[in-house]
Design goal:
The complex is a heterotrimer of chains A (about 160), B (about 625) and C (about 575). Chain A is of the alpha+beta class and about 160 residues long. Helices cover about 40% and strands about 10% of the residues of chain A. A four-stranded mixed β-sheet of chain A has the order 2-1-3-4, covered by helices on one side. Chain B is an alpha/beta fold and about 625 residues long. In chain B, a hairpin with a 5-residue loop joins β11 and β12. Classes of the chains: A alpha+beta (about 160), B alpha/beta (about 625), C alpha/beta (about 575).
Chain lengths: ~160, ~625, ~575
């Protein structure tokens, strides 16, 4: 259970109320939208928040854990301020996206799925972001950066350094 | 400006027609080179701000225009229209200036003042910003004359790149919601509407190719009062972005298509399940839904007909398998997206156990055209068994990457070499991968066949959602198969043994082969695994995941054999099978390779030929990049 | 009339009711389609793909466990394609399974092992490449070894669908999938009632029962200790299955003989304390009914059920009978009453119980279960552990000459015996309550109205004019319905409720032999009713040893000493769990 933040974070459960409110009329199937909303509110999904969601939606906590670990979007640990998603799609692959990822790993010093120590960047890979014509591509937060070359990576990261 | 026309609820088809007539003159500039200014507006500048062009810097182009036009006092006369995907993504950022009908590509913010000066004020095209034909090297002013566009047949993408996707008015001006009005006028005879869909011959554009009309009929005839329809917008195939472009460029077409579908099937509620990786598409769809509701073409009592239809958006949370319809349904229900066995089919028991019909974006978006112009019109495009057009996302090592809509039955060669302009850097075409992780590849010998559902299956590939990834002589086919398998392995839901365990086993074998650890018998073992995984997996993901392997073995068996028996990668891509060396004849001893080598594997005195210590070499390729000038470093 | 359809399987045509699966239809024809993820106790999952069959006209193979029959369906269950696919599936599973069958708890009862043998999988062409998971031994009753898990999801479905506890989930996806409690916690850290049904339904050795045989052997081998064993009612109708008997075969005498062979000093019967339980519970019930307090009263002999109540309905705990379970009453008496009567030093007594139940292993360790001044029950062995112990001692069980229980706490009535099945406690209580309250002899001793397998059964019993509404629930899903009803103000007006955690009652407890017969519950229950029918004593209050206990020691049911030894306070012992 090592990597899961079980304590040390004071979780303000009040942040969940607007999320519950937004989906209160959804008779069924509100679990995933509520989890998405909760993740937006906290940046990740703290266990205490998941327990509160389990209680409110009357869904077993085990089922919530199953859902959270199934979908790539959900995080049980805090993420960096900026999320970098290095595209590993086919078009990017044949245009050498592996070298872009290598460069990101070197510059940031973290492996995909991990966050830099200063909590600035989280590095992830993504199956495809649909910018195939600009391959190889990465997405930082909601900006797509295309036609990448390994040597351009540091400069792009610099522009997010604040 | 059409954006200033207030939206009020439309009470009937007549109101819709009246609104259209009111808006239409505002868009005349884009249709008629001699159009008169409308409310003082003399020009429309269409700037493609689709995800692709945005990442190429389109937003800065918009800002530059705004600034320059304001400075020159032209901001009231020139309207900047942000558009969705114009198609030719390779050329972004790109714009079209109306009424002059001038097409500029690869723009930079500093180019803008010159365009305003010359084209807007002077009425002259600026040659250096125009597209130049690759063969003749001559500039082309009108985009329609460029081969990339000229060979396409855009009946579905007709609005994409031509209207402001966030303005319902522009959609309505282009006959938007007219098909819905027509369908509602026949609401007591929805069988006739269904017949039109059947007549069109439209087949599911998500991959399977099941006839849409027949699929709808199953759900329509299923017992039950409450029914659902779903739009699968979880476009997960790497290398495919048709659906994203459609949603970003013409969102109302999807809304209208689903609303008509709901009427025909008998569903009052629909869901669009869109991947969260498409934030712009989601935003535009949400906007489109609220505009449509405001206008009364969606929601309760649509166009005063008494019929109601509600549409919701569900954001996917990142799982490729949710493209499988039962998995998608479970995901909407808030569960893990794990497929369940069919039967029962969703048409009988789907979302929350109710009859449910699921189609993808492209399928739904084709409906308004079919209803408005008739099934026979649609069926006039395409081949005998595959009707209509298909949008392909053309990517990889092809010159012209972008969106291509062509009639079914066009040959792959016409698509790749005609529309796509051939292979980048004059390399040799090797294969085209179609259908993503579920599809296969077609080698040179197969690309003169017409592209349709059945011939692709015959050739060991499949239509999939329509991603075409072109690969050249530098792509290793074993590595490409390995790439797809690593994708499937990561995206397998883990429920059934063949897919969960089998894809991993296939991946292990492929990885071994690309690392020079292949053994005699590996190809046969791969074939045995592939055959059985296809047969015994629970869902389409597992049943099709061996296709990339089977098709590469079918057409490129010699590449597998070269890896296994000769320990060589013919495409010189598999790092473990490569050796780097320096050609002493070419090396001038500049030392740039030595400097850049991260492993200190290169040694040599200044102005003398250098050598690579192959024991130390990590085969990163930095030295080759560093020696672009002399080309002394090679690998084999 | 049910609609029927005709289908052809392996060239034989059969007519079956619409809605059954291909797997079920094939069974009718005597065609065995192997399964792994499918089990008759849970809904089909169609995940393992071992049961794939060829349906004529189908592109791919289909899972027989879930495919519904349709008229005219033509199925081949054993074509070359099917055989190759099945073998490969098993090979793939074995490639990621530890090859330690010889030392595995489920050696010879493992379904994967059997399948590999049956299908002739002789070679594994792939290297193991799964990560190694930590073994979870946080639970007092169960041990989970995720390395052995084949992801069939039987435990996930049973726990969620039947028991409504949803302790397990699938986490991650694809090759990284794992079955686990939430957040990868241990079973001992989450709301697990310890019913142990997961260990019975697991096809392999991924969930097993904690093995306490070593401690028991050590006690037996210690000459200082007096090792006294009690055997629960339902062990006698199941133990034989481990030695080839049919489910429901009553092997009481052989079991007693076997226990003596193992070296237990005294072999006594939990049926005796089941009878005591009835004396206490029937009295407690009449008191509560007269006082109109804490009605409905709910039985408390199933420790999995007690855990459930404490974990999920802590506010309703007062509805529980305060009476301890027969195991714990036995433990409290053996180190007090029995020790006095037999002149034994209670500090030297090691009290062992043979139980069908995994939750009993936890119950005996609860801090309040030391009324005798010692831990009342020292060790609990499940039926499976006993069977294995007998085998390891070379006891030829089938050849044993039956022996009777030792005296003083060795006599049990038919009422005690039927404690092992759903409805049995209620029936036993009614047999006594009727005669005690009405002072009349029961006209018909068998309360057939409350027998059966219905998940939640109700009846109204006329106790000479006063009508008592009773309910019986087995399986925690049904228990939850009962609790929801009580929470809603008891609209059905129940007075007395029997709840058993395990479907069918103790006869299918988590520690019973692994069942292979689809009708094993019914057969074991029939065995208990049969045992009851053949006993001369069938009412708890007529048990002479029980009468002697009250005369010589306890004085009266629910009296002062009873309260000290036989009753407890139930409290939520699980508040700190996730």
């Amino acid at each position: 259970m090592g990597s899961i933040a079980t304590s040390g974070h004071a979780v303000d459960l009040a942040k969940l109320e607007p999320v519950f409110d937004k989906y209160k009329d959804m008779a069924n199937g509100s679990l995933i939208p509520v989890l998405q909303g909760a993740q937006d509110a906290y940046g990740f999904l703290p266990i205490a928040a998941l327990q509160a969601i389990a209680k409110r939606l009357n869904v077993p906590i085990s089922q919530i854990y199953g859902v959270v670990t199934f979908y790539a979007q959900f995080r049980l640990v805090p993420r960096g301020k900026h999320v970098i998603r290095s595209c590993q799609g086919t078009a990017c692959h044949v245009r050498n996206s592996a070298r872009i990822l290598e460069s990101l790993k070197t510059v940031l010093g973290v492996a995909p799925g991990d966050t830099t120590e200063d909590l600035k960047f989280t590095l992830e890979t993504v199956a495809c972001i649909g910018c195939c014509s600009l391959a190889p591509v990465m997405m930082i937060d909601t900006d797509a950066h295309g036609r990448l070359r390994p040597d351009r990576v540091p400069k792009i990261l610099d522009s997010y350094s604040n | 400006m059409t954006s200033t026309i207030p939206l009020t609820r439309l009470k009937n088809a007549g109101d819709l027609e009246a609104l259209k007539n009111k808006i239409f003159p505002g868009l005349a500039l884009r249709k008629d080179p001699n159009a008169q200014p409308y409310e003082g507006v003399t020009h429309n500048i269409m700037v493609c701000c689709d995800t692709g062009c945005t990442s190429s810097g389109a937003k800065a182009i918009v800002t530059a225009f705004e600034k320059d036009l304001a400075e020159k006092g032209l901001d009231k006369k020139v309207e900047i229209v942000v558009i969705g995907c114009h198609g030719f993504c390779e050329m972004g950022p790109l714009i079209v200036v109306y009424p002059d009908d001038v097409y500029y590509v690869h723009l930079k913010p500093e180019d803008i003042p010159e365009i305003v000066e010359e084209t807007i004020k002077g009425g002259r095209p600026v040659e250096k910003f125009l597209y130049h034909d690759r063969e003749t090297l001559k500039p082309v002013v009108k985009y329609r004359e460029i081969e990339f566009y000229a060979k396409q047949n855009r009946i579905l993408l007709t609005n994409c790149g031509h209207i402001h996707p966030e303005r319902v008015t522009e959609y309505i001006a282009n006959d938007g919601y007219k098909a819905l009005a027509k369908a509602l006028s026949m609401k007591d005879d929805t069988t006739a509407l269904l017949e039109e869909v059947k007549l069109s011959g439209l087949r599911g554009r998500g991959g399977g190719g099941f006839p849409t009309g027949r699929k709808w009929e199953l759900c329509r005839n299923a017992p039950g009062d409450k029914k659902y329809i779903i739009c699968n917008a979880d476009e997960g195939d790497p290398g495919a972005f048709m659906d994203r472009s459609l949603m970003e460029g013409d969102p109302h077409r999807l809304v209208e298509g689903m609303t008509i579908g709901g009427l025909i099937i008998g569903a009052n509620e629909g869901y669009i399940y869109c991947r969260a990786e498409y934030p712009l598409a989601i935003r535009r769809l949400k906007l489109a839904i609220s505009q449509a509701e405001e206008l009364g073409v969606l929601g309760d009592n649509i166009l005063g007909s008494g019929w109601s239809f509600h549409l919701h958006i569900k954001e996917g949370a990142g799982a490729f398998v949710c493209g499988e319809e039962t998995a998608l349904i479970h995901s909407i229900e808030g569960k893990r997206g794990m497929p369940t066995a069919r039967p029962p089919f969703p048409a009988i028991s789907g979302l929350w156990g109710k009859p449910t019909n699921n189609n993808n974006v492209e399928t739904w978006a084709n409906i308004p055209g079919i209803i408005l112009k008739g099934g026979a019109w649609y069926a006039s495009y395409g081949t005998e068994k595959s009707k209509g057009t298909k949008v392909f996302a053309l990517t990889g090592k092809v010159r012209n990457t972008g969106l291509a809509e062509v009639p079914m039955g066009m040959t792959m060669r016409e698509i790749i070499f005609g529309i796509g302009g051939g292979i980048q850097n004059d390399k040799k075409f090797k294969a085209v991968q179609i259908g993503g992780p579920s599809g296969g590849c077609l080698p040179d010998s197969m690309i003169d066949r017409p592209v349709d559902y059945d011939s692709l299956i015959e050739a060991g590939a499949m239509m999939g959602s329509g991603g075409l990834v072109v690969v050249d002589e530098d792509t290793c086919m074993v590595d490409l198969a390995r790439f797809f398998l690593s994708f499937t392995r990561d995206e397998s839901c883990g429920k059934c043994t063949p897919c969960r365990e089998g894809s991993t086993r296939m991946l292990n074998i492929l990885t071994n082969i690309t690392q020079g650890k292949g053994k005699p018998g590996d190809i046969e073992l791969l074939e045995e695994l592939a055959r059985n995984i296809k047969l015994s997996s629970l869902c389409g993901l597992g049943q099709t995941c061996p296709n990339p392997i089977l098709s590469t073995i079918r057409y490129f068996r010699h590449e597998y054999e070269a890896h296994i028996y000769e320990k060589k990668c013919p495409a010189r891509q598999c790092v473990d099978l490569l050796t780097y060396f320096i050609d002493v004849e070419k090396c001038v001893g500049c030392g740039s390779c030595k400097k850049i080598c991260p492993a200190n594997a290169i040694d040599g005195n200044k102005k003398e030929p250098h050598i690579i210590d192959i024991q130390k070499c990590i085969k990163c390729g930095s030295c080759i990049d560093a020696c672009k000038k002399y080309k002394a470093v090679t690998r084999k | 009339m049910t609609k029927t359809v005709s289908i052809t399987i392996d060239n034989q045509t059969v007519t079956v009711p619409a809605g059954v699966t291909v797997w079920g239809a094939a069974r009718k024809l005597g065609i065995h389609i192997p399964t792994l993820c499918h089990h008759f106790d849970v809904k089909p999952y169609s995940g393992c793909r071992v049961c794939v069959v060829e349906v004529q006209g189908g592109r791919a193979l289909t899972a027989a466990c879930s495919h519904p029959v349709t008229d005219g369906l033509v199925v081949f269950t054993n074509s070359p394609k099917v055989r190759e696919a099945r073998r490969l599936v098993v090979e793939l599973l074995l490639a990621n399974h530890p090859h330690d069958c010889l030392t595995c708890d489920r050696n010879q009862t493992c379904e994967l092992q059997k399948l590999a043998l049956d299908l002739g999988v002789k070679e594994i062409r792939f290297e193991k490449s799964k990560p190694t998971w930590e073994i979870d031994d946080t639970s007092p009753s169960l041990v989970r070894d995720p390395n052995k898990c084949i992801l069939c999801g039987r435990c996930v479905r049973f726990c969620a669908d039947k028991q409504t506890c949803a302790v397990y989930t699938f986490a991650n996806r694809g090759f990284s999938s794992i079955v686990t409690p939430a957040f990868g916690k241990g079973l001992g850290e989450v709301h697990c009632t310890l019913c142990g049904q997961c260990s019975s339904i697991c096809p392999v050795g991924a969930i097993t029962v904690k093995d306490d045989t070593a401690a028991v052997i050590a006690a037996i081998d210690d000459p200082e200790k007096i090792v006294i064993v009690q055997t629960a009612p339902s062990v006698r109708v199941a133990l034989g299955e481990m030695f080839g008997d049919a489910p429901g075969s009553v092997v009481t005498g052989k079991m007693v003989a076997g226990l003596k062979r193992l070296g237990f000093d005294r072999v006594l019967d939990t049926n005796f304390t089941a009878d005591v339980t009835i004396m206490e519970e029937a009295t407690e019930f009449t008191h509560r009914l007269n006082a109109g307090k804490d009605i409905p009263m709910i039985t408390s002999c199933s420790p999995g059920w007690i855990n459930f109540m404490e974990m999920f309905y802590p506010d309703l705990i007062h509805h529980h009978s305060t009476c301890k379970s027969p195991q714990q009453i036995f433990g409290a008496l053996v180190k007090t009453y029995y020790a006095q009567k037999e002149n034994l030093d209670p500090s030297k007594i090691v009290s062992v119980s043979i139980m069908p139940c995994t939750a009993k292993k936890y119950e005996c360790t609860r801090p309040e279960m030391n009324a005798s001044g010692y831990q009342d029950v020292d060790y609990v062995l499940t039926t499976r552990e006993l069977g294995r112990l007998l085998k390891s001692y070379g006891v030829s069980f089938n050849d044993l000459a039956p022996l009777p229980y030792d005296p003083v706490m060795g006599v049990g009535t038919g009422a005690g015996t039927i404690f092992g099945n759903t409805g049995g406690v209620m029936e036993a209580a009614l047999r006594t309550a009727y005669e005690v309250v009405t002072k009349k002899t029961l006209p018909a001793i068998e309360f057939t109205a409350i027998r059966g397998m219905g998940g939640l059964r109700e009846a109204e019993i006329d106790l000479d004019g006063s009508k008592i509404k009773v309910a019986i629930a087995h399986g925690l899903g049904n228990a939850r319905m009962v609790m929801e009803s009580i929470k809603a103000g008891n609209p059905r007006g129940w007075h007395f409720i029997e709840v058993m955690a395990c479907p069918g009652g103790c006869i299918s407890g988590g520690g019973q032999p692994i069942a292979t017969d689809i009708n094993y519950r019914a057969k074991r229950i029939a065995g208990l009713y049969d045992d009851d029918r053949h006993l001369s004593l069938r009412k708890s209050h007529e048990n002479p040893e029980v009468q002697q206990l009250y005369t010589e020691f306890l004085k009266e049911p629910c009296g002062h000493l009873s309260h000290k030894l036989l009753h407890t306070t139930i409290h939520n012992a699980h508040a700190d769990l996730l």
